[in-house]
Amino acid sequence: MKTTVIVNGNKLEWFAGMTIGDVLEKMNYTFRMLVIRVNGELVRKQNYATHEVPSGADIKVIHLISGG
Amino acid sequence: MIEIIIDGKKIEVAEGTTILDAARKNGIPIPTLCHRSTVEPYGACRLCIVDIREGNRTRLVTSCNYPVRKPVEVNTQSEKVRKTRKTLLEMMLSRWPNVNLIKQLAREYGVTSASYTHPLVDYSSNACILCGLCVNACSEIMWEDIIGFAGRGENRRVVMPFEKHYDACVGCSTCANICPTGAIQMTDDPNHPADDKRISRYGARVTDEVALYDIEQCRMREVGTAHLTEIMNDYDLLPTCNYKFGSHDEAGKLHSDVFKNKYLTQGVPDGCWLGCTMACAKVAEHFELKTGPYRGEKVLVDGPEYETVAGCGANMGIFDPEFVLETNFYCDTYGIDTISFGTTMAFVMECYEKGILNKERTGGLELRFGSAEAALEILHQMGTGQGFGVIVGQGIRRLKKIFAEKYNLSQQDIDFMQDIGMEAKGLEYSEYVTKESLAMQGGYGLALKGAQHDEAWLIFMDMVNNQIPTFQDKAEALHYFPMFRTWFGLVGLCKLPWNDVEPVDNAETDEPAKVPKHVEGYVNYFSGMTGREIDKKELILMSERVYNFQRVFNFRLGFGTREHDRIPYRSAGPVTDEEYESRAERYDKQLMEKWNYDITGKSTTEKREYLRKSREQDYQSLCDAVYRRRGWDENGVPTIEKMKQLKMDFPEVIAVLEKYYSSYTARSS
Fold first, then answer.
1. Residue A68 covered by a domain
2. Which of B344, B347, B349, B311 is nearest to B327 (CA)?
3. Which of A30, A44, A64 sits opposite B512 (nearest CB)?
4. Which of A12, B163, B658, B665 is deepest in the core (most CB within 10 A)?
5. pLDDT recorded at residue B427
6. Contacts of A64 in chain B (CB under 8 A)
7. Strand pairing class (B423-424; B427-428)
8. In the prediction, which pLDDT does B666 show?
9. Are B5 and B73 in contact (CB under 8 A)?
10. Residue B645: its H or E element
11. Looking at residue B18, what DSSP letter applies?
């Protein structure tokens, strides 16, 4: 059984109950304008703290462009 | 979550949700006249009343401002509710009999005309119905209080102070856009837009987005672009000590909240663009200067923006918000650009640390990283035309030449200055570390005006998201974004409302990075203003014409060819062993995984040099891919075919380019 997830192409150690909020914290992704898909499925912002990611998931955390 | 019942339907809502929001989210209609999600509900029209049952008691409440705190049963259509709404609508109809909105609602409640006439009856179809949306929008969305209510009871009316025209009103149109009857209307005599309503419609969408979402997105209204300081530090992108590193332990001292909590005194639109809701420019008042001709005086300081915080702070190794403010004030006062000053000073400081400069050469100033006092002294010298500051004021490109000649430097030192002097085409870099983003290296190096990020800011797409992994992907981004962003300059519109606030459903669009709904907005601003219908492709084509013309202009000034798209190596990778070792794990991994380089037994210098060779090759391959995508030849010269395709093949233009085709062919052969 895989014990990692892939975040933007990088391996990240997975643990049971891992949420999107945990992924953002582990990756130190503090930017706020994000588009997140887990195995292609969009996760809405209000669900980041509760949406659990399965082991082996392909997670895309797309940071949008900001600034002058 | 709290379970409530509305019209017999069980619904779970978060505590604090209003009954109106809960009902509408569940498809249960409740009429309103004075409600918009962008302003605080205040129950003026009373039409949203509902019957609530708590225990054995029922009572009428306005649902728009009734937050759910405990389980409650709601009836939106009880006899009492319908009767009260009918009475209210009849009263409104008696005063404003021809306002469509009221007529329509009244009809739904069986009222087609009032049984009496109000003494102040207004027969106009766009009468003010005193809903108060304009007053609240002015106050809550624009943070102004230019209009308000005067009088009481039937004398209540919307006015400017003392019922006179008030100059502080800049005509932002927010009140007109929110007015449900058209009682407030905008006229645009100077510009004569072809379709002002079309422009307002799209503009109002952005206004609403800023009012609703900015607080949870970029906080532009609170702190402006300075919110990027902490973000850049978190992602190892904040230049510190002349772009050596991308983060610093002391960066928290320059956090946007430090400026907000201690120094910024005005949180209102500054008028950089009349009526802009985003209002990103900030002001610090009563700031006491410690140096220079105005020492001891309390002044008003603009900003600071992110670039100023990073350039006139972190990049010089100075983590003092008061230094940032003082530098910002004096740069503005002397007319010196904060980016060029910050980046040039960072270069000078590294030259000092390296021994290329010393006290004798700087007129006695110890210009090490972190030397705030000495940096300010240079700024004053620069502004008043004295001492070493006059030399520094010439910028990095000239400094490299001046230092080399004046101090008779070794080739090694000259090469070092070439590597760490962060300029391209003679313009100093703005404040982002680009080592881990090849696309952004191109964003700077290939920008026509020199190393500025306003053509393309691709670091997140490239380095963080891994969205554009191949040279072709990066080239596509380095085609689309520079063309799209050039368009803002062509039409004189600000770019920030494109990407510093986003529609709530942007994530669900096909290309969120482009913010498609905002692109649609800009297309409509253009067509609404000019009356000429365009689409998003034509928008890019407009830019492509001008962009290529600008490239031709560069050729005419001798800056067009490939050699001028060169970047200093620090933009691409670690120049020194110190830099390599600070991120050794990252670089070692790349050497092994990306370039299959066996690092066993290799010294830092050997690894660094191998990395350099690989990254420099990558940059040249990127240039190849971008030139191809833009329709330019191998030397970066727009081809005749491309100029024909763009209908820009004027004889004078081709004459400029032909010299370069022939010289390149001659050199190649």
1. no
2. B311
3. A64
4. A12
5. 97
6. 460, 499, 502, 506, 512-513, 515
7. antiparallel
8. 47
9. yes
10. helix B640-645
11. B
Instruction: In whole angstroms, give the CA distance from residue B321 to residue B298.
Output: 16
Which residues in chain A have their CB less than 8 angstroms from residue B499's CB?
A: 64-66
Is the CB of A46 inside 8 Å of chain B's CB atoms?
A: no
CATH architecture of the domain covering B438-668: Orthogonal Bundle (1.10)
Q: What is the C-alpha to C-alpha distance for residues B99 and B131, in angstroms, rounded to an integer?
A: 13
Query: Is the pLDDT score of B590 beyond 70?
Result: yes
Residue A10 lies in a domain: yes
A64 and B466 within 8 Å at the Cβ level: the answer is no
Token code pair at residue B160: 């400017």
Q: β-strand B49-54 against B57-62: which pairing, if any? A: antiparallel
pLDDT digits (tens, 9 = 90+) for A13-67: 999 999 999 999 999 999 999 999 999 999 998 899 999 999 999 999 999 987 6
For the four alpha carbons of B244, B248, B253 and B256, in that order, the dihedral sign comes to: positive
Binning pLDDT at 50, 70 and 90, where does residue B55 land? confident
CB pair distance less than 8 Å for B460 and A63: yes
Q: Does residue B388 come out as left (phi exceeding 0), alpha (psi in the -120 to 50 range) or beta?
A: alpha
Fold of B2-77: Ubiquitin-like (UB roll) (3.10.20)
Question: Which pLDDT score, from 0 to 100, does residue A68 have?
Answer: 60
Confidence band, pLDDT 50/70/90 cuts, at residue B73: very high
List helix spans (H) across B435-572. 438-445, 459, 471-491, 496-499, 516-530, 536-556
Residue type, B587: Y
Can you state the percent helix, strand and coil of chain A, rounding each to 5? 15, 35, 50
How many angstroms away from the CA of B208 is the closest CA of chain A? 17
Q: How many domains does chain A have?
A: 1
* Cβ pair B316, B378 in contact under 8 A: no
Q: Let me know if residue A27 belongs to a domain.
A: yes
Domain ranges of chain B: 2-77, 217-428, 438-668
pLDDT for residue B236: 97
Helix, strand or coil for residue A13?
Answer: strand
CA atoms of B23 and B177, how far apart (whole Å): 26
- Other beta carbons less than 10 A from residue B97's beta carbon: 20
Architecture of domain B217-428: Orthogonal Bundle (1.10)
Q: What's the complex ipTM?
A: 0.93
Model confidence pLDDT, tens digit, residues B447-469: 999 999 989 999 999 999 999 99
Best residue in B13, B214, B215, B218 for a mutation probing chain A (most A CBs within 10 Å): B218
Amino acid at B116: Y
**How many CB atoms sit inside 10 A of residue B406's CB?**
11
Q: CB B467: neighbour CB atoms within 10 A?
A: 20
Give the CA distances from residue B257 to residues A52, B263, B380, in Å, rounded to whole numbers and listed in that order. 32, 10, 29
pLDDT digits (tens, 9 = 90+) for B599-635: 999 999 999 999 999 999 999 999 999 999 999 999 9
CATH number of the domain enclosing A42: 3.10.20.30
Q: Which of A31, A61, A62 sits opposite B512 (nearest CB)?
A: A62
CA closest to B220 among chain A residues: A67
The whole-number pLDDT of residue A65 equals: 81
pLDDT (average), residues B132-140: 93
Boundaries of domain holding A43:
4-63
A17 in reach of chain B (CB within 8 A): no
